## 1
Amino acid sequence: MKPFLILIIALLSTSINAQNSNPNYDAELAKELGADNYGMKGYVFAILKTGSNTSKNKEEKNKAFRGHLNNINRLVKEQKLIVAGPFGKNENSFRGLFIFNVKTIEEAKELIKTDPAVKAKYLDVDLYNWYGSAALSEYLKAADKIWKINP
């Protein structure tokens, strides 16, 4: 009876694993993107908020935000930043978000230090560890083909 139970358990286990395996799985791509067995990986999620600088100096503010956009473009080219975008008006003073393609909050803090709008305190940033699809960066290939005007 015991060998029969072991056989049944082994067959069920094989059947369950077969049902959960992906016929489209690309081991090379998964490795290239740093995916775990679930196709996921760790990132750092950033929420950009209104900072403490309330200066009315328009020229200074414009220069800081032009540098902010240039910095975003640089980080995208370096593959350190894979999502960036603004929020609409909201009661939380949230201005935008970033998803950094780095493993630790410490790495993200170093990248944030390079942002002129953060340095000038027009923006403040909260950082969180985030677990998402390792394929997230793949959208950048298409994203670079659909903008007409570079911000």
## 2
Amino acid sequence: MSTLRLGLALPQYGPLANPAAIAGFAASAEALGYHSLWVGDRLLAPVDPSDRYPGGGTAERPYPPEFARFVDPFVALTAAAGATETVRLGSSTLSGPLYSPVLLARTATSLDLLSGGRLDLGLGLSWLRDEYTATGVPWRGRGARLDELIEVLRTLWTADPAGHRSARWEIPDALFELRPVQRPHPPVLVGGMSEGALRRVGRLADGWLPARLPAEVLRRMWAVVTEAAERAGRDPGTLRRVMRINPAPGAACASISDVAAQLAEAVAEGYREALVDLHYLAKDVEHALELANELRSAVRG
């Protein structure tokens, strides 16, 4: 699978959530030959949650208990940026509508500069209404809010002076001399599996962040992305696809050999980028690195 650019989730939540261990993990992952390192975004683990985790939440276990311990994604990316030289650094995904566009643009620019132009900004909507309540952001209209956020980010990254005026945000025209290394701006990737999310990828994004599903399901979803891109006058062939695989005990993908098999299937389907989240398999950061080494060997073999 030499054509596959393989990434790992940084140790960010559950038993692996130790900010002091992130830099060492990132440097070791780069030395093992990983192409990218990724963070997620979880703000709350409510006692009585508004919604169940869409990845298998139940009434007794509405979300993975690991979510109660979660390192800030920007802290994790900053630690990784300072400890590495070549790996891409991405989010899969930030809960976009919860962020102020002007603050997010500044943070993303700073990370892109710190890393020498290695940032991939992945955005999504979050499935948990409680996070919107906690940050004072309306749940209704969140899709349109994410659309506008992407447009505002690109304006702030490229226009001079830059500003924005709408019912959601009033940003006075201002000078932004701090500019990303990547031109015209860091890639904006979008996660999600709904039709609205897929059409957003085609219309606005630089790529898609899908979770691993049966090949025929992903093909149907990609057809929606392709159609939306063509309708928007864009070339779907320029869009990236970064497959996410979340192995866990008792799941269909429960071991490193299962991950390797799923990665081989993804390559056969035309995917050239993937990331693996080892949080549910690893007991601690050291164990996560052992699994990462085992995975690299399995993929190379």
## 3
Amino acid sequence: MINWLYFPKSSKPDKLIVSVVSAFESVATEIDSTNNELKSNEVLEIVAPRLVSLGFKVETGKKSSEKIQVPVLFGYNGRLEKSFDADAYHQPEGFVIEVEAGRAVVNNQFLKDLFQACMMHDVLYLAIAVRNQYRGMKDFERVVRFFNTLYASNRLSLPLKGILIIGY
């Protein structure tokens, strides 16, 4: 079962956000974390064709040429100086997707994803897909609880228009 929540809760998810959720829903039985122990790259590979059909560039492997680099800093003569890799990127909409598995909460990978998306040039939206369950823990609920606290406290202003959390 796919769970999802969009932040800020005061904003209605737009068409692309709903389409990203639908992409995950269309492969829900294949990636369901209650029945599968897939690695993040395996989940990404399964959902990739649906994301590509929505206009996303999707990472195809671990080689430099297969990664999706999103600019962060520009140096001399406007040359790219620093970039971060994304699992999927929709440049026209400024939308980055990160798919996580076991490290999502245990190693706070979702926080690194948030930080990197905030640093990326022209990125406005971030989706983080995490397991609903991992080793008896409810990762989706834990990540959602974090973002509920972040937005409710109103103590940190993010440069993103929206954040989508997907539980698979």
## 4
Amino acid sequence: MSNEQAKRLEPTTTKTRSSTQSSFLRGTASSSQKSGTRSQEQQLWDAICNDDLKKVHTILCTAQNLNLNKPYTVITIDKNQGRDTCSTTYLLQACKVCRSSEIACALIRAGANVNASGNVLKKVPYGSTWVPDTVVGNVTPLILAVIMRSEDLVRYLIQLGADVNSANEAGERPLHYVFTGMTQNPSHATRKTPIARKDRNVTDAVFAALVENGADLNASDKQGFTVLHVAAERGCLEEVQMLVKAAADINVQTPVTGLTPLSLAKHANNVAVVNYLIQHAEGKAKSDEAKDVLTCN
């Protein structure tokens, strides 16, 4: 090969190598994407991440054989661990990054499973675009909407078929998150402090939306903890009061160890919650006794 022929080939080689590297860093994996052709899956992902409702609508109307319930996988490049992959659903991504609920609703109407759980991804300042958000963990779209305190999205998801009692992999329901945001079971070391006063109104609205649509106040996760267990253990007095007034069972026990909301509150030294639960139990006992007397008479 002559020097002149080598020079003509050099720009083409450099361009191809640069294009492949750029595609890889964006988190693409297929051969068609590496060659510069974006698949309809990646186009939909990008449109969702850019909150582009018009583009999402166009893709949903024109795409062929697009499976909205197949997890979308991206390649992550960790500065310490190197190359890896992570995945999520289009609907979870829409619930997380979009400013409105229209894109989530469009995906559901086009066939996305409103109750499918998965891991949420987040952007990072280094390497690839997305990595798993380990703080949020495995959630359903409705749980994610509750975490984000989005009353509108909560109500839209319920209207479109979201089950208010559907659980994630840990058996946690939307109610387990409603008062404490990012949840950890009472047995976990990481705990969330009670919600700030400024968030009270929206939290109450989210709680009301769930209860109005049939949320089970006494539903437990896989360890047997109900939302009242969680609120009592964390010292959330106002949340405990709201749950009890809504008819949550204060005597509910975990199946293996028999822990009650009161025993958890005592162990955590949450005096105000302990006093309230005791007083309520005593008041209920007196009320039941009075009813028995009236019935006998």
